[in-house]
Design goal:
By secondary structure, the chain is of the alpha/beta class. The protein contains eleven helices and eleven strands. Helix 1 runs parallel beside helix 9.
Length: 327
Amino acid sequence: MSISQKFKRAASWGVLIGAWAGAVVQAAEFPDKQVTIVVPYAAGGFTDQVARAMAPVLAEKWGKPVVIDNRPGGGTTIGTALVARAPADGHTLLLSSLGYLTNPLMMARLPYDPQDLKPLMMVSESPSVLYVGKQVPASNLAEFAGYMRANDGKVAFASSGVGSSPHICAEMLASAVGAHIIHAPYRGNAPALNALMAGEVAALLDAPSSVSYVQAGRMKVLGVASDKPVRSALPLTPFSQSSAPELKPYSCSSFFGFFMPAKVPAALQQRIYRDLRAVVEVPSVAEGVTRPGGELHLLGPEDFSAYLDAQRPRWAAVIREKHITQE
C-alpha cells in the first residue's frame, strides 16, 4: 500500500471516528433547549392524553421544558410534516397513531416524505370496542351480526373521519359479517360519540374508555375486538369468544407511538428512546397513559418498525377493497 493510500484510509477513519464522537457528544448534551412533542390530533383526544401524561415527568428528567404542540388537520399530515422537516437534533418528536401508517396508503400526495421519519418507540395499543345505540335490537355480537345482514347497506357507523381507525375497523367488521354499512364521518371522536348517543347512527368502534357512557345508560356495549379481555370498568366480551363463528377471528386496534426525524444520529435516538421508556415505566405515568383505554405495549425502534411492517398489509388490503381515499 502506497503512502498516499495509507493517508487516505487514515483520513477516512478519522472522518468516521469524528462523526461517531460528535453523535455521542450530542447525545450526552441532549437536551439543550425546549423539547416539543407534536400531536397531530386535537387536544383532549387519546393521543393527546398520552403525551400529557408523559410530558411533566420527561421535563423533570431532562431539566428542560417539554411542551405539547397540537397540530390537527389534514388527516394528521400537518403535524407529521412539521416533524419530518424539523432539525435532526432530537428536540422535536411526533406522537402519532394509525394515521402515520395509513396515510401513505390512502393519499396520492403527501406533504412530507415518509422516509424522513423514523419509528422511535411504541407506547401502547388500544383495541376497538363495539358500541351500539340503545335503539339497536341486539344484545350481543351474534345478534348484531344478524342485524347487519338483515339491514344490509342500511346500518350507519360513526367515525372520527374518513380513514380513521373507527372507519377502517367498521369496514373490516362489515367484511367479516358479510354486509355493507353506511359510513358517517364526524369531525372528531366526541361528535361521533354524541351522534351515537343521540340515535343518529347505529354503531361506533371506539376506545374502551367510552364504557363510562354505557354505565350512564346512554348506549350499549357488545364486545371488544380482541382475542383476550382488556382492562375496563365493565366486562367486555372478546370477539374471539363470540357465538358468531365469523366474528371469532376479527380484531382491530390502534397503536400510539413516537417518531422522530430520520437523520437524528443513532446514538441520540437510542438515548431518547431509553429516556422515554424509563418515563413510561414510572407507575403514575403508566397509569396516565393507559387510563384513556390503552394497554402498554412498549417496543423499541427496531421492533416498532417490524410491528408497522407487519401491520401495513392488513390495513392496505381493506383500504384497497373499500376504496378508502383522502384528498
